[in-house]
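User: Can you predict the 3D structure of Translation initiation factor IF-2? Sequence below.
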Amino acid sequence: VTVLFHLGEMATATESLDEATFEILGEELGYKIEIVSPEDEDRELLEAFDIDLEGEEAAETEENLEPRPPVVTVMGHVDHGKTRLLDAIRRANVQGGEAGGITQHIGAYQVWGEHEGVNRAITFLDTPGHEAFTAMRARGAVVTDVAILVVAADDGIMPQTIEALNHAKAAGVPIVVAVNKIDAEGANPDKVRAQLTEYELIAEEYGGDTMFVNVSAKTGEGVRDVIDAVLLTADAELELTANPNKLARGTAIEAKLDKGRGSVATVLIQAGTLRVGDSIVAGTAYGRVRAMLDENGEHVEEALPSRPVQVQGLSSVPRAGDTFLVTEDDRTARQIAEKREAAERNAQLAKARKRMSLEDFTRA
Ligand code: GDP
Ligand code: MG
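Assistant: Sure. Here are the predicted structure tokens for Translation initiation factor IF-2:
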């Protein structure tokens, strides 16, 4: 406090300071200050358990890596048809005779489609609107490989269209534009193409490199073309691979507390293979995978990269965007979760203390 005072900075002993002030303070007092972000802190925590995710990633060789399906998010202005398009895509995928199966909402699902003679999977994050995307990105999790930007042809671009495309661009995620509602009266798909050129989304037919697809989620026209465009864009712009032969890790997409089943969390596997019985930690939740369900409510024993599954058996409900990882044993998972919990508690206490000291200050 004295040194800060001499530097012309009034502070109390319980007050938080910004990073620059800390560095100056360190210099004055002869200490070298190292600023540790929450991410760094978590990395160090994991390293204490001999887990080095980045190092592991960097050490992957071509022989270890196998292709994985693209993970796709649907974004766009409200009422432009995101939900209906997701439904149409799901329906396009249901094979004749198999319809009627219970499809439960787990926040993500995979569809299989033939593309250039090869049967390929695509994972859709079924959380329409970009709130989920934004929330996850704010927590450092970019799980999406390709974004489908839905624009209604009878309405044209709208504020949330621009917001959505800016989010995708900021995250470096390639965009496929689904020009929807081409069946509707007053639909003008070319106008949408023209409007989006202003935002550097230039259709291939205009000499650009963004795929635009005319579609009607209502009649089903063009739905297959949307799926094709996603696969073409993924193949052209991305190298989608992961090592399936290691302990699983990934991100929680959504989670809730179920009366009968306890914590149920939909997780997206991003590397490795998740198996029933694995010890797992997701944010501050931990436990053993008691059961895994797919989007059809079917039990699955193991899940490969890009596969979304609903996991039962966690001690509490993780947040969307929390990363998860499988550990060697239960104890490790629990200890990591507890250490994180303690770190969060400390951070909250520090914040509360700061608020209190500010109140004292204004009261005085
Ligand atoms: P969201 O808010 O983007 O999820 O939009 P919805 O999927 O809920 O669709 C909003 C409205 O537009 C609903 O009444 C849909 O039935 C309608 N809609 C969606 N797609 C189409 C389409 O291709 N053609 C027509 N005519 N209506 C559509
Ligand atoms: Mg919707």
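The pocket of guanosine-5'-diphosphate (ligand 1) is lined by residues 76, 78-84, 128, 180-181, 183-184, 216-218 (CB under 6 Å). The chain has a mean pLDDT of 88.
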